[in-house]
Write a structure and sequence with these properties.
- It is a single chain.
- The chain has 188 residues and is of the alpha+beta class.
- It folds into two domains: 60 residues, no CATH class; 110 residues, no CATH class.
- 48% of the residues lie in helices and 16% in strands.
- It has a three-stranded antiparallel β-sheet.
- Strand 3 and strand 4 form a beta hairpin.
- Helix 5 crosses helix 7.
- It is flat and about 60 Å long.
Length: 188
């Protein structure tokens, strides 16, 4: 694991020697060479963790920018099972399309220059996947709504087009989901 140094200037790689997978019996990957320097295995782990930390910081900055621009709104997802049972998932935020459209050109240009506008559009596209849940998992319905709106309101202007569309990939999605669940179960 990575841990910040006391001065907050760098990260240190921590190794839990009490972990049952950590041994001195020569099994598995060596962490340090005979000269005490990290092995290639550890160097690769360090590279991964450094990249992960950079992306984490980038995500924090992006989220701060979206908050500053006041683009987020609380959301909840409504899911209705074929049996009639209803579930609600709340406690998450989503970009408000109308607020995004109202941003001044200089703010949009700034988002575009830092590739953050692309992230926003990917997020908006991802939110449309709620409509596909009902097709993929045989649900009676699934859709996100703003927490302060009626569940019957479509979250996107063209949601009906998304609901009506059927692609070859979507028709095969239940099989792919089943295979993924089976693979996941085998890894446990």
């Amino acid at each position: 694991m990575f841990a910040k140094s006391d001065d907050g200037e760098r990260f240190n790689l921590g190794i839990d020697e009490m972990f049952s997978g950590c041994n001195g019996d020569g099994r598995g990957e060596r962490l340090f060479a005979d000269d005490g320097k990290p092995t290639t295995y550890v160097e690769n782990i360090l590279k991964f963790l450094q990249e992960y930390q950079l992306q984490f910081l980038r995500t924090e900055r992006f989220c701060q920018k979206v908050l500053e621009l006041d683009l987020l709104e609380p959301m909840q997802a409504q899911v209705e099972m074929n049996s009639g049972e209803k579930y609600s998932l709340g406690g998450f935020m989503a970009i408000n399309r109308e607020k995004l459209k109202e941003l001044p050109g200089d703010k949009l240009a700034e988002l575009a220059k830092t590739d953050e506008l692309e992230l926003i559009y990917l997020h908006l596209q991802s939110m449309r996947n709620f409509a596909a849940l009902k097709d993929r998992f045989g649900l009676a319905g699934a859709r996100p709504t703003a927490s302060n709106s009626e569940p019957s309101e479509p979250p996107f202007a063209d949601q009906s087009a998304v609901d009506a569309s059927e692609t070859k990939g979507r028709k095969q999605a239940p099989k792919a989901a089943k295979r993924a669940r089976e693979r996941g179960a085998a890894l446990e």
